[in-house]
Amino acid sequence: MSKASHTTSKSLLTAEHLTWCTDGNVILDDINLAVNHQSFTGILGPNGAGKSSLLRCLYRFVKPEQGVVRFDNQDIWQLHANDYAKHVAVVLQEAPSHFNLTVYDVVALGLIPHKGLFSTANKSDEEKIAQAITQVGLTHKVQQSFEHLSGGEKQRALIARAIVQSPKLLLMDEPTSHLDVRYQIQIMELVKSLGITVIASFHDLNLASAMCDNLMVLNQGKLVVQGTPQEVITAKMLSDVFGVCAHVEQHPQHNVPHISYYYGYKQDDTHSGDEHA
Ligand SMILES: Nc1ncnc2c1ncn2[C@@H]1O[C@H](COP(=O)(O)OP(=O)(O)OP(=O)(O)O)[C@@H](O)[C@H]1O
């Protein structure tokens, strides 16, 4: 279990001593992290731990009080906003309002950082948009109003928009929160297959374990554990950070940690039966 990160030339994104406060409270407390090119990083942690706040600092929505975030070795606050937007796509928990826009229109918005607001899509752009819509399984909804999609369909449309943007870095805040189990797996495998760098927050720890190369666990604004799923997903971490009792074993298909939660346990039962603890 590693508690420190090491910045290397393989890092696309780094944060050093990142601290963000609001209303007199420290929300992110001296975070250090390094995310390698083409890796898939999961951010875990209990409600209120600071996952969304960290993502907001990484996509330049809020400016930290202290510390620096670097993208390709450049301080993100020294970059022109549009230059950063060309390389970084964001999929948030709450779908933005896109009144009167069809699914096609919303997915096409992914072109704006590259082409500007008023340019029209060419043939290759149109093919890219159509392919992304197919990849997320929304071909039958292409002319439907975005506002009338279900929560999961909106999430998939926004992931298609991110695919069209062709970013180097994709940041996602609980990207599977509205997806049924088939689309949770399918969409995460699609995102993984893009070969880009991904950072996503998860509440589904088994999904994160199966999909991510690296995991970072936040607790009360601090980055308390980081490493591979094997290093991070242990009964001790689940007890210490989430306050739950669980058994961790290897997933039968691909040997990553797989959690079974115990219900109605007494505190003394924690850590029972887990060789990873
Ligand atoms: N703009 C803000 N003003 C005041 N408090 C904030 C603000 N943004 C975040 N917080 C507080 O910071 C803490 C972390 O919030 P954040 O949304 O980052 O947590 P999270 O780990 O994403 O939680 P969840 O799993 O519930 O989505 C919370 O206590 C929240 O109330």
Question: What can you see in these coordinates?
Answer:
By secondary structure, the chain is an alpha/beta fold. It has two domains: 11-227, Rossmann fold, CATH 3.40.50; 233-277, no CATH class. It has helices at residues 51-58, 81-87, 103-108, 112-115, 123-135, 151-165, 181-193, 205-211, 229-232, 235-242, and strands at residues 11-22, 25-36, 40-44, 66-71, 74-75, 88-91, 169-173, 197-201, 214-219, 222-227, 246-250, 257-261. The strands form three sheets. A six-stranded mixed β-sheet has the order 6-7-8-3-9-10, sandwiched between helices. The chain has a four-stranded antiparallel β-sheet with strand order 2-1-4-5, covered by helices on one side. Strands 11-12 form a two-stranded antiparallel sheet. Helix 5 runs antiparallel to helix 6 (151-165). The radius of gyration is 19 Å and the shape is globular. The model is unreliable at 1-5 and 272-277 (pLDDT under 50). Bound molecules: adenosine-5'-triphosphate. Adenosine-5'-triphosphate binds at residues 22-23, 27, 45, 47-53.
Condensed summary:
By secondary structure, the chain is α/β, with parallel strands linked by helices. The chain is built from ten helices and twelve strands. The strands form three sheets. It has a six-stranded mixed β-sheet with strand order 6-7-8-3-9-10, sandwiched between helices. The chain has a four-stranded antiparallel β-sheet with strand order 2-1-4-5, with helices on one face.
